[in-house]
Amino acid sequence: MHVFEAIEQRRSIKHFDPDHEMPEDEIRRLREACLLSPTAFNIQNWRFVAVRDPAIRRGIREAAWDQPQVTEASLLVVLCLDLNSWDRDPARYWRHAPPEVAAQLVPEIRAFYRGDPQLQRDEGMRSCGIAAQTLMLAAKALGYDTCAMDGFDFGRVGELINLPEDHEIALMIAVGKAVRGAHARAGQLPPEEVWFRDRFPSGY
Asked: For the chain, which has fewer Cβ within 10 Å, the N-terminal or C-terminal residue?
């Protein structure tokens, strides 16, 4: 599927075929696509929890106010961020780079993030957002539909997936075979309200 077709056809699906099992090779392809998502300084601060255990899924569904896609989807991925990835042996992120490049960038990583928890969190959220879109478009290209989710009890889901203390959850994505299509698009804002040239217009 052409990338623009995937963008245009991607919709948030709420009802999936609960009997469909995603083959391991397709899960692997989705994983590999996610791991190609860009991150600042290549710190790879996203973490992906592919929840397949039925009992954990049921628990997450309870924490998500009984939304059916949590258990009906073929795959449920919880996208998390490691708040301290910048400080976890950052040299490994540049181990294949030319030595002079690594020598310059590796010290900059700690200098940039140290002492700024807000930046550490914001960077993780940005990384997870990019990875989420990568996952959804890759899934669409494989013939699957998706639903990005933030309507759930983050604390409870964190308990269910054994989330480390220095990690946070950004969102979840349900992936599966749709059994019911999405409603017509609810209403896109016109381009002139959201896309500007050079700067925001006066009086915006």
From this structure: C
In DSSP notation, 86-133 reads GGS-GGGGGTTS-HHHHHHHHHHHHHHHTT-HHHHHHHHHHHHHHHHH
The answer, as to whether pTM is greater than 0.90, is: yes
Would you say 148 and 132 are in contact if contact means Cβ atoms under 8 Å apart? yes
What strands, in cross-sheet order, belong to the sheet with 167-176?
Answer: 46-51, 75-82, 167-176, 145-149
Share above pLDDT 90 across residues of the chain, in percent, rounded to a whole number: 88
Strand pairing class (167-176; 75-82): antiparallel
Residues 6 or more apart whose Cβ sits within 8 Å of residue 167? 47, 80, 81, 82, 83
> Which two structure tokens, joined as six digits, stand for 106?
């590796």
Cα–Cα distance between 34 and 131 in angstroms, integer? 6
Cα–Cα distance between 42 and 22 in angstroms, integer? 30
Per the CB < 8 A criterion, the answer to whether 82 and 124 are in contact is yes
CA atoms within 13 A on the CB side of 79: 29
